[in-house]
Amino acid sequence: MFDTGSTGFMLVATSLVMLMTPGLAFFYGGLVGRKNVLAIMIQSFVSLGWTTVIWFVAGYSLCFSGGQGGVIGNLDLAFLMGTNLNSTFFGNSDIPLYVFIAYQMMFAIITPALISGAFTNRVRFPAYLMFLTAWLFLVYFPLVHMVWGGGLLAEMGVLDFAGGIVVHASAGMAALASVYYVGKRNIIERGPHSIPLVALGTGLLWFGWYGFNAGSELKVDTITVTAFLNTDVAASFAAITWLILAWVLEKKPKFVGLLTGAVAGLATITPAAGFVTIQHAALIGICAGVVCYFAVALKNKLHWDDALDVWGVHGVGGTLGVILLGLFASSAVNPMVTTNGLLLGGGFSFFLTQLVSVLVVCIYCFVFTYVMLKVINLITPVKVTREEEEAGLDSSLHGEIAYEQD
After folding, report:
1. How far apart (Å, rounded) are the C-alpha atoms in residues 197 and 310?
2. Which of 16, 78, 346, 372 has its CA 20 to 30 A from that of 225?
3. How do residues 262-300 score in pLDDT, each as one tens digit?
4. What's the predicted TM-score (pTM) here?
5. Domain ranges of the chain
């Protein structure tokens, strides 16, 4: 009944995307100081458990049932009622529905965890759990439905192969809003406490991203291979571009810069991975390295305390990728592209659709996140106290420490 090759591949891809969340925890954990490692890592790991519960109860249903052409689905499939081992995914009968449910769940797990890097060392754990829950229901689930569940943006012709709008632009703008709300840290850390942990996290993210992008084809074909190769090429070109820029402008070839550039390239190619040629993937990687590098530089100049550069890497990278898709989308690569990108002879309307849609989503995510944090603060304090921050969140909030203090 099911294609065993595609089903097996999708199970591997699902596992790879799951691995990205621990990878993110290591990436963020290495970037913070020694007294705040566990506090930032638990914000990623708790999403593995809590988001799974939400996805089972209502998340999958709200994303992928009912509401054709609308903003949000319905609860017809709440608690996964009406599904069984032989159910097929409506978009691809070659794989069991349960594989698709699990695959999309991994996306839901990592997306809000991305935001946590912006407000590191400043947010209390109960407030984070409330934020995680509300953000999934009121931002992530509607975006998934509108783009991938047959909703409003899909009917408008918006393309997003693996999450430039749904994952990276939304998380990046939410991160920026959270920075504006929680303000600056009282205690500025001296820099990453463990660059080797950052490297480990980057490696896990890069490895997992093959499942993130190539798996979004939901079967094994030439588009799967294209997305896989485009992912690596864009990440590599972005990493080297960032390294060169840092070497020239900062006089040192920075390892953290190389790693950050790779993540920027991965985020930027995500919406376009299965829609563009390998040559354009290389160009997208170069654009990602340049634009995201200077976005981070702008953030520093404006003194925004986006601690781990979520806005500059994911927000700017995801937005850039969606816009570049409007320039480089190719029907020769993927028949889902009904109109080529603007620079490949396509009409201006597709490019404009991509541009407007991602900008509107960015504005919504920023405004809603800011308002949501204000509401949460009426229920439970969002910000840690100065004393908690000085002591370190590991001990003050969680009663644990990652390292014995000198």
Report:
1. 18
2. 346
3. 999 999 999 999 999 999 999 999 999 999 999 999 999
4. 0.96
5. 4-395
